[in-house]
Structure formats: C-alpha cells, structure tokens
Amino acid sequence: MDVLEAIRTRRHIKFFKPEPIDEALWMSWLEEAKLAPNHKMTEPWQVLVVGPETRAQLKHGQNFGDAPLVLAILAKRGQTQVERDENLMAVSCFIQNFSLLAQSHGAGIRWTSIGWTDAARETLGVGEDYEVANIIGVGYPREVPEAKPREAIANRIKRLP
Ligand SMILES: Cc1cc2nc3c(=O)[nH]c(=O)nc-3n(C[C@H](O)[C@H](O)[C@H](O)COP(=O)(O)O)c2cc1C
After folding, report:
1. Which residues are in the Nitroreductase domain (predicted)?
2. Which pLDDT score is estimated for 135?
3. Cα of 130 to ligand 1 centre, how many Å?
4. Is the model's pTM score more than 0.90?
5. Distance from the alpha carbon of residue 95 to the mean position of ligand 1, in angstroms
6. Which atom of ligand 1 is nearest to the CA of 133?
7. What is the DSSP string of 105-138?
8. What are the two backbone dihedrals, phi and then psi, of residue 80, each rounded to the nearest 5 degrees?
9. Residue 28: what pLDDT?
10. Which domains does the chain show, CATH number per domain?
C-alpha cells in the first residue's frame, strides 16, 4: 500500500477483532514511527504498553474498542510553552506514522484523549515531566467506518501578499 492509499483509507477505528497483532509487527511500526520529525532531535516520545490490570483501572467507557493492544503515547513536557507545543506536534507526527503503518497492514488505531485527566495520569504513573498525548487502541478493525466528509482545502487556504 502506498502512502496516498494509506492516508485515504485510514479511519479512526471504533471496535476491534480479538485477534492480536504480532508483537514483532507492532514493535516495527514503533521503530519506524520514531523517524517522525522532531525539533532539535529531542525525540520527545515515550510509549507505555498498557497491561490488563492498568487498562481495567483506566476505566475507558468502551474498553478502547476491545483493542487487543493499548499503548499510551507520552510527550516530554518542554521547559517553555514553545517546547511543549513542539514536543506534542512531534508526538502527533509519531502517532500518525504509526497509524499509517498499521493501516498499511490492515490494522488501525482508536484515539482516546482520556490521558489528559489526572486520574489517568496517576493510573499510568506519569510524572510531571511527561504529558499523555493519547492512549491508543490498536488492532484489526471489526468494521471500517465510512470516510467523514471534509471541507474543501481551498476554503482553508489564505494567500498573503
Ligand atoms: C488528538 C486527537 C484526539 C482524539 N481523541 C479522540 C477521542 O478522545 N475519542 C474519539 O472518539 N476520537 C478521538 N479522536 C479521533 C477523531 O474523532 C477522528 O479522527 C475524527 O472523527 C475523524 O475521523 P477519521 O479519523 O476516521 O477520519 C482524536 C483524534 C485526534 C487527532
């Protein structure tokens, strides 16, 4: 699958099949995801592989769509607001790389923003030096949603003199 096809067919996956993804495969996606751009080579990501006990304590309403794998993706908190924003942007690129690699193997991810709560941070044991950018469910989709309509990009482009 080429990049364009992966971008076009990627979806936010709501529910997953129980079938696990081979660990060597998802580890290879993380390995490639780290090639994401990051300012000053801070490589600000950290990945927590969420085990069953921790997962239960997170109490996600839909249990991460029954995903066979749950990863908490952390971003190093910068010293300044700019560093903080840059680190989150780099981690977003990391997640998108991972997502497109999953897509190219017939898998997908479910994004959940619950990591921003104090309760989730505590459950994950994340200190002040990191933020939980997202907690993703990863697996093979039970069903692939239709593409959601997007506004024409021309409407979001402004040309400056
Ligand atoms: C930073 C970020 C956080 C998100 N958090 C959630 C979330 O908490 N719950 C959820 O259902 N979807 C979440 N999403 C997924 C979006 O809802 C989804 O990407 C959007 O509906 C478009 O659908 P698509 O990805 O299938 O094109 C998040 C996406 C991003 C980029």
Report:
1. 56-140
2. 98
3. 21
4. yes
5. 12
6. 1
7. TT-EEEEE-GGGSHHHHHHHT--TTEEEEEEEEE
8. -120, 170
9. 98
10. 3-138 (3.40.109.10)
110: CA distance to ligand 1 center in Å? 7
Contact 148, 23 (CB under 8 A): no
pLDDT at residue number 51: 98
Residue 113 CB–ligand 1 contact under 6 Å: yes
Residue type, 44: P
| Site to substitute for ligand 1 among 8, 12, 74, 85, most atoms within 8 A of C-beta | 12
- Cα–Cα distances in angstroms (integers) from residue 46 to residues 49, 60, 135, 139, 148, in the given order: 10, 21, 12, 20, 30
Q: How confident is the model at residue 9 (pLDDT cuts 50, 70, 90)?
A: very high
Task: Tell whether ligand 1 has an atom less than 6 A from the beta carbon of residue 117.
Answer: no
